[in-house]
Every structure is written in C-alpha cells, then in structure tokens.
Design a protein that fits this description.
The protein has about 230 residues and is mainly alpha-helical. Helix content is about 35%, strand content about 5%.
Length: about 230
C-alpha cells in the first residue's frame, strides 16, 4: 500500500505543470535594452536601414532587414534575428565597434516577442548612453573589492566576478538587474551607518549614480572579466 501511494505521488508530481515564468516587462526590461542598444541609430535623428524603433507604431514597421517585430514570431522579427548573427556579419546589431547586447538581453528580447511583444500605449523611447562596464569595474575595484572578494567576503558578498556578484549572499541577491533602487549594492551606499567601519573609498555621487544606472540597464558584465584589488602605488 505504501509503495502504491509513493508511485501515485511520483506520477502526480511529474504531471504537475512547471511554474510559468512571468512575462517579460516592456517598461522595466525591454525599454532600457532598446534605449541603450538601438535608439542611437534607429531614432528620430537617425533612421539607419530605414527603421525607427523609438515609437510603437514605427517599431512594428519594416526596414531594410524586413519586418522589425512580428508578435509571437521572434525568428521572423529582424529586431531579434539581427542580434543573433555572427559578430563578423555586416548585418549584425549593434554594429561592430559598439558594445554587443548580452546573451541574457537577447533572450529577453526573444521571449518578449514570443509572448506577443506587448508595448504599452504612449511610451516613446529615447537614446540613453550605456554605462560601460569599464566604468563600473573601476568603481568596484577602487571602492568595493577591499572587502568583497575571494580573500575577504564581508557579509558573504563577493564582487570580483560576474557569477559571484549576481549570486549575492545567503540573504539574497545584492544586484537586481533592471532595478537599481531595489538592489542592496546601491541601497547600501545611501544608508548611513552601513559602511561606518569600512567606508567605500573614492565613491562620489557620480559613482553611485553610475552604479544605479548600470543596474537599471541590466547590469551587463562581460563573462571573461574578473576584477582584482588594485595594487598599492
């Protein structure tokens, strides 16, 4: 009887539907991706390839590479297909010479289109300069790694590698991509007393806002970059 109960339990567990992922948010995720990676060349000032992507109406039209967005069909949407081309392909987007869109961001674009490419009415995009990781990496090296790296993990947090930084600590993530204000990495810099014993060095208001915007833009961190504590001069 016990064996039959266990068998039925296993069957019911196997038949249970997998938990669905929440839909990709246009406002929180897709908008910053398009604003930092696409609008510079496909906005009101420049129409490369005959395509504008700064308004909903224009973004769903065709450019030189075909229809930009076909709801439900990412592989028929040039917005997606040009992102996954080989880096040496002349049609790859963003063009060579500009920072590539991360694999995670490409997957968000694919999912968003597959889910129907919902774009709330009234939202127009503007060009936003991307915060390069070279800037963020420099801030982390100068102001954070003294206490948050492999040899010293204050609060269980490491900020020297992409994997460790995104993993966070036992209390949860310290970086919430696309939400700087919800990220403890940024919030801790605003709270009096958090860094009283070991205040971050050289952190200006400009540095703090750069970290916040970098997180809001997706917290992209090149996979091959590992940070280290600067050697004393």
């Amino acid at each position: 009887m016990r064996g039959l109960f266990l068998f039925c339990f296993i069957l019911s567990a196997a038949a249970a539907p997998a938990q669905e992922q929440p839909k990709v948010s246009f406002t929180r995720i897709i908008k910053p991706i398009l604003e930092t990676a696409c609008v510079k060349c496909h906005g009101a000032d420049r129409w490369h390839g005959g395509l504008r992507i700064d308004t909903k109406e224009l973004a769903f039209e065709s450019g030189d590479n075909g229809v930009s967005i076909v709801p439900g069909k990412p592989r028929s949407s040039s917005l997606y297909t040009t992102l996954v081309l080989a880096s040496d392909n002349p049609r790859v987007m963003p063009p060579n010479g500009r920072e590539a869109v991360s694999k995670e961001q490409i997957e968000y674009v694919r999912r968003w289109i597959e889910e129907g490419a919902e774009w709330p009415e009234g939202i127009e995009l503007k060009r936003v300069d991307k915060i390069p990781f070279s800037v963020v990496g420099g801030i982390l090296q100068q102001s954070c790694l003294q206490c948050h790296q492999s040899q010293k993990k204050e609060g269980g947090v490491r900020l020297d590698t992409r994997e460790e930084a995104l993993k966070g600590s036992a209390k949860g993530p310290v970086i919430v991509p696309y939400d700087g204000d919800a990220s403890p990495l940024y919030r801790s810099l605003l709270s009096p007393g958090v860094h009283d014993k070991n205040p971050p060095r050289l952190l200006t208001e400009e540095d703090k806002q750069a970290l916040r915007e970098w997180i809001n833009q997706g917290a992209t961190w090149p996979e091959d970059i590992e940070l280290s504590v600067p050697k004393p001069k």
